[in-house]
Amino acid sequence: MIGPVLRGIRVIDLTHVLAGPYATMLLADLGADVIKIEQPDQGDMTRINPPFLNGFSHYFAAVNWGKRSVAIDLKDPEGRALLLRLVDHSDVVIDNFRVGTLEDLGLGYSELRERNPRIIRCGISGFGQSGPLAEKPAFDAIIQAMTGFMAVTGERDGSPIRCGVSVGDIAAGTFAVAAIALALYQRRETGVGQEIDIGMFDSLVSFMTYYLTLFQANGTEPPRVGAEHVSMVPLASYPTADGAIMVVAFYDSFWSRLCRAIGHEELIDDARFKSMPDRQRNRDACNAVLQSIFVERKTDEWVEALNALGVPASPILGIGALLGQPHLAARGLLRTIDGPEGSFQVAGQPIRMSMHRSSDTPLGPPELGAHTREVLSSVLDLDEQEYQRLREARIVG
Fold first, then answer.
1. Is this model's pTM higher than 0.70 or not?
2. Has residue 300 got a pLDDT over 80?
3. Are the beta carbons of 57 and 47 closer than 8 angstroms?
4. SS3 46
5. 229, 327, 356, 371: which is the annotated catalytic residue?
6. Is 229 a catalytic residue?
């Protein structure tokens, strides 16, 4: 039967900002019932991040659609008791609090497991749950700075630059989803859950791959090379008559096709550029020659000529041009979400499976506490009188 692959899985979402909400957004789009637990007085701190899009913070809306919001005060003993009752009926608890926060509240994995041995707890943090940096405060920029990511990003003569996308958050969120899927699979065999420890630091270190081995091979810090590749030439952006083009032709077969496409076959056998090692040694000369050629024609003309011979090349698109790409619609990458003041588009999860189908009408980002009564009634069988008492005591919202 074709349907959401995680249908029937309930996730208690204690996350905020980006890494955790990105993970739970992916889980929701894969079919999980994600219940986002928020403090009644303020909720996720990104709810107030301007600018606003159809009634919601653009930041909050991007990664919190598809979820239900339940407002519970976890600082109150009764609020914590409600959460533990929800855990009894759930499969996964995910958080991105600072290390030790849930344990201090009596909501650590040992307490969760005692209530529900099948529960899977996933903790996302800056530096992981152990090690000398475990309690160090961290956001994406700190993680990029400490993993070498910024050191290798930027122009040759410029300062280290943070990647525009919060890649440390996104990486950790993605690894969290993979780990949760693995834990759910293993639970089918063992019958019990487990604790998952995802560090943003760990995630970005794993992204550094060949930079780690490059340092060991050369014994020196890898240089910043802008839009180029540190060891493959040519792989760079070049000015054109009306903008810029990105070209990837570092393999010898691509290089010969590139030379034919640009009308300079004599470069194929030029001793400076004949092989990949030659082009690496003569990087500046190679890029200078290509730059002088690409500036003569418009970007689209070059892209067409290069792609016709199988050379990877593309314009450098802005967000507006990206959203207008027909390929996004063909791949189903944009989801239309309804908000209180109109609809908008968000990036959906990119996983394509022949037996999985996401909902055609995903939930929009929830108002704070929009589903508190619904969830407490349907999951915990809480009656209206008790709900009103908790609401008046400001334990729920």
1. yes
2. yes
3. yes
4. helix
5. 229
6. yes
